[in-house]
Amino acid sequence: MNQEVENVECLIIGSGPAGFTAAIYAARADMKPVMYEGLQPGGQLTITTDVENYPGYPDGIMGPEMMDNFKKQAVRLGADVRYGLITKVDFSQRPFVCIADESKTILAQTVIIATGASAKWLGIPSEQRLNGSGVSACAVCDGFFYRGKDVAIVGAGDTACEEASYLAKLCTKVHMIVRRDEFRASKAMQHRVLNTPNIVVHFNSETDEILGDQVVTGVRIKNNVDQSTQEIEVSGFFVAIGHTPNTGIFKGQLDMDEQGYLITKVDSTYTNIPGVFACGDAQDKIYRQAVTAAGSGCMAALDSERWLAAQE
Ligand code: NDP
Fold first, then answer.
1. What is the best residue among 209, 224, 241 to mutate for testing ligand 1's pocket, by most ligand atoms within 8 Å of CB?
2. Is 260's C-beta closer than 6 angstroms to any atom of ligand 1?
3. pTM for the complete prediction?
4. Is the model's pLDDT at 2 over the cut of 60?
């Protein structure tokens, strides 16, 4: 039974760059935002190391420290940031009914969804052990650290092809590990990869093990046709096998594409439910950068402020 009931003007679900930027703007607009941080407070940046592409940090900054700064700024401006989970929502009535931590009912005038996405991983022990020590799920974030070195990337979709092309500009050689005998990516992306001289594609190949004690030193791949194995020396291992948006609790209520990304109206953060806004990686499968997520978090706060004002 849900005993406690709380009225909230602006509920923000999720605590990555999108959620915190929404909180900063909503707090300054006097909307008294309440944020539930979710399963991974601070979001995906808390599992990266140096962030060098977020403007305003000339010397770069560690991902966890940056998210701590986002939080401090939001709290200083008055956001109520809570460690906890929104486990259920009902957007069929207003105020929106959201259940926090299975026990508390929040009645929200507006809801900003910033639940992000999670990278898919291969699920092998060496991947987990070396995560952050040469294993990464984001070439744009971490590729720079491997300039002039050999790297490997696993995946065969548009993301893997795009990231392989990006890495090829920085790295000496890029080994692309593709589990079938063909790509999933669009023809244009395949063409680009196959015409880049320093990308070597290993078809019908799976990752047997990522090698290295403290840091990645290589990868052992297995050919799934003849079962032969091969060890390749690399300093970085990138996983680009897709992301899963964290939008399960909104299924059946908010419009989403077949992969679960929330659909927002063009040039806005409006979902199909007036008063519910979506920003960051939960609705963006193309750019997925901290700075673009932060930008859309700002948009969501402005949209929700203006929407609320129009209701009065
Ligand atoms: P996709 O789901 O399209 O592709 C995932 C790839 O990873 C597939 O090739 C799949 O192999 C492979 N894979 C999955 N699991 C494993 C595993 N365990 N081991 C090895 N390989 C594995 O994800 P993307 O992130 O590439 O793209 C997501 C969506 O975003 C797509 O719709 C894409 O078109 C879009 N996108 C568009 C871009 C653009 O237009 N510029 C850029 C980036 C993404 P298999 O093929 O064998 O299933």
1. 241
2. no
3. 0.79
4. no
157 lines ligand 1 (CB under 6 A): yes
Q: Is 141 labeled as catalytic in the residue annotation?
A: yes
Pocket test for ligand 1, best of 179, 206, 256 (most atoms within 8 A of CB): 179
**Architecture of the domain made up of 121-239:** 3-Layer(bba) Sandwich (3.50)
pLDDT digits (tens, 9 = 90+) for 87-128: 999 999 999 999 999 999 999 999 999 999 998 999 999 999
Amino acid at 22: A
Q: Please state the domain extents for the chain.
A: 4-118+243-311, 121-239
The answer, yes or no, to whether residue 1 has pLDDT greater than 90, is no
CB-based contact 114:13 (threshold 8 Å): yes
Do 4-118+243-311 and 121-239 come out as alike in CATH topology? yes
Cα of 288 from ligand 1 centre, angstroms? 14
Give bridge partners of residue 173 from the DSSP assignment.
150
Q: What percentage of the chain carries pLDDT values higher than 90?
A: 89
- For every residue of 27-43, DSSP letters joined together read HHTT---EEE--SSTTG
Confirm or reject CATH 3.40.50.2000 for domain 4-118+243-311, answering yes or no.
Answer: no
Mean pLDDT of 173-195: 96
Question: Ligand 1 center to residue 240 CA distance, Å?
Answer: 7
Instruction: Say if residue 48's pLDDT is above 90.
Output: no
Cα–Cα distance between 184 and 129 in angstroms, integer? 28
pLDDT at 3 over 90: no
Measured in degrees and rounded to the nearest 5, phi and psi for residue 173 equal -140, 145
Question: With bands split at pLDDT 50, 70 and 90, how would you rate the model's confidence at 52?
Answer: confident
Task: Please give the span between the terminal C-alpha atoms of the chain, in angstroms, as a whole number.
Answer: 33
